[in-house]
Amino acid sequence: MNDIGEPFLSEHHDRDGAPATDRPGSAPPVAREKPRRRGRWLAIAAVLPLAGALAFGAWRHYGATRDVMATARQQRDFVPDVRVAQVRGSDSTITVTQPATTLAFEAANIFARTSGYIETRKVDIGDRVKAGAVLAEITAPELDHQIAQAQATLAQNQATLQQTLASRDLAQVTNERDGRLVKQGWVTLQQGDTDRLTLEAQKAAVGVAQSNIAAQQALVRVLQQQKAYQQVVAPFDGVITQRNVDNGSLVQAGTTFMFTLMHSDVIRVQVTVPQDAAFGVVPGVEALVRIPELPDQPFPGTVTRIANALAPGTRTLLAEIDVPNPTGVLSPGLYCTVELHIPRKTPSMLVPAEAVVADRNGLHVAVVRNGAVHMQKVTVARDLGTEVEVHDGVAPGDTVILNPMVNLVDGSKVRADTTVAQGEK
Questions:
Q1: Are 251 and 259 in contact (CB under 8 A)?
Q2: What is the pLDDT of residues 322-379, one digit of tens each?
Q3: SS3 for 280?
Q4: 25-58: per-residue pLDDT in tens?
Q5: What is the mean pLDDT of the chain?
Q6: Do the strands 415-417 and 134-139 form a parallel or antiparallel pair, or are they unpaired?
Q7: N or C: which end of the chain has fewer CB within 10 A?
Q8: Number of H helices, E strands in the chain
Q9: Assign residue 149 a region: left if phi > 0, alpha if psi is -120 to 50, beta otherwise?
Q10: Which residues, including other chains, have CB under 8 Å from residue 388's CB and lie 6 or more apart?
Q11: In degrees, to the nearest 5, what angle opens at C-alpha 82 toward C-alphas 80 and 88?
C-alpha cells in the first residue's frame, strides 16, 4: 500500500507544488509569467488615455463653471458709468414758430353793377389808385332810353294825380251842396248818398295816384343808380392786382369780375397756432415775422385779433398779426414764418430727447437717485427736437440717464458721470 500511495502523492505533488521543471515536457515558470505581465501593461496603457481625458474634461468643466460664476458675480457687483443730464424747468414764455401767409389789410374783387360794354378802361395791373378814382366806364344806350321812359311815365302819373285832385274837389263841392238840399227836402236821399260815395271814391283815387308817383320815382332812382354804376370807381386806396376786362368787353351786372384792388400799406399775417400753445395767445402777444428771402430783415408785430375758437379739423387757433408796410417791401400772398412769444399758462419741464425711452409700457425716463435707477413715466407735451417738454414724472433738477441700457430696471445701481451732466447743462 505504501508503494502504491507514494507514487500517487508524488504525482499529485508534482502537479500542484513541484516546479515546472520537474514535469516532463512543460515550460519553465518564468516563461509562463511573461504573458501575464504584458496583458496588465496593455490594460494600463488603454485605461490611462481614458482617465486622462476624463480628468481633462472635469478640469475644463470646473474652469467653465468657475468663469461663469465669476462673470455672474462680476455682473452682479458691476456698477456701470452712465451719461446723465439735468431736467430743466421751462421758461415763462413759449416760443412757437409756425408757417403763415401775408394778406392785404383790405382786398376787394370789383364786379360790374350794370350791363353793357367797356367804353374806357382807365387802370391796369400795378396801378395805384385813390378812393373814388374811376377805374372803367361802361356804356349802355338802352339804359338811357329806360330812364327817359320812366321819367315820362312819372310825368304822366303826376298829371293823373292833378286830374284826380280836381275830380275830388268837384265831388266835395257837389256833396256839400246836395247835402244841404237833402236836409231841405229838395233832393232825394238817393242822390245825397251818391254824392257822398262819389267823394270817397275820388279821395281814394287821389291816394292811388300818389302811390303810383312814388313807385315811379323809385324806379327812376334805380335806373339813375344803374346809370351811375356805368362809372366803376375804387372803394378805397390801393393797388390794382388783377384785371379781367378790356375796352369793348361785354359785362353783365353782378356776374362779370373786372378788377382786384388791394390795400397793402398794412399787411395782415394769418397764422394757425396748435392747441398746446393756443391757450396763451391773446391780442398783444409779441410776434416776429420772417420772410425766407429776407433772412436779415425780421418784421416785428403783435397779435391783433384771434378767432376765439379752434378749428375742429386741425385743432388750431387762427390769429392775425398786423405789420406796418409803409415802404411796400411786403406783398400779399407771401409765405413766411411767425415766431410767437406766448406766456406759459401751465408749468412744464425740459428733458433731453435721448433720455426718453419708449416701450410697451409707454414713455418713461430713467432717473438716478442715490446711485439707484428709478423708471418714471412721463407725458410729452411738445417735441422740440433735441429736447421734449413734459408735464409730469420728473421735477426740475432731477438727473436722467441719456440713452439708458436696455437691461436697466428699477433699483439698478449706476454711477453717474457728473462731467457729462455738467457738459449737458
A1: no
A2: 999 988 899 999 999 999 998 887 778 889 999 888 888 888 888 988 888 888 898 8
A3: coil
A4: 444 555 555 566 666 666 677 677 777 777 777 7
A5: 83
A6: unpaired
A7: N
A8: 6, 22
A9: alpha
A10: 350, 351, 352, 353, 356, 380, 381, 382
A11: 150
CB 263 within 8 A of CB 236: yes
Dihedral pair phi/psi, residue 226, rounded to 5° = -60, -35
Q: What is the DSSP string of 135-150?
A: EEEEE-HHHHHHHHHH
> In the predicted model, what is the mean pLDDT of residues 161-186?
81
Grid cell at residue 233:
370807381
Q: How many CB atoms lie within 10 A of CB 127?
A: 17
Burial 86-95 (b: 16+ CB within 10 A, else e): bbbebeeebe
Cα–Cα dist 85/400, whole Å: 6
pLDDT tens, position by position, 98-135: 999 999 999 999 999 999 999 999 999 999 999 999 99
**Is residue 121 helix, strand or coil?**
strand
User: Which CATH homologous superfamily contains domain 260-343?
Assistant: Efflux pump adaptor protein, beta barrel domain (2.40.30.170)
Is residue 103 within 8 A of residue 270, CB to CB? The reply is: yes
Which grid cell sits at 365? 425716463
Angle at 189 between CA 186 and CA 190, to 5 degrees: 120
What does the pLDDT look like over 268-312, one tens digit per residue? Answer: 999 999 988 888 899 999 999 999 999 999 999 999 999 999 999
In whole angstroms, give the CA distance from residue 219 to residue 336. 51
Place of cell 428709478: 374
How far is C-alpha 197 from the geometric centre of its chain's CA atoms? 79
Which of the listed CATH numbers 3.40.440.10, 2.40.110.10, 3.30.360.10, 2.40.420.20 matches domain 348-424?
Answer: 2.40.420.20
CA dihedral defined by 66, 71, 77, 78, rounded to 10 degrees? Answer: 160
**The three cell numbers locating residue 82:** 452712465
Cell 433772412 found at: 295
CA 240 to each of CA 65, 102, 329: distance values in angstroms, whole numbers, following the listed order: 91, 17, 17
Indicate if the pLDDT at residue 9 is higher than 50.
no
pLDDT value of position 12: 44
C-alpha cell at 40: 496588465
Grid coordinates representing 269 are 399775417
367 three-class SS: strand
Is the separation of the CB atoms in 261 and 110 below 8 Å? yes
Q: Supply the pLDDT for residue 65.
A: 77
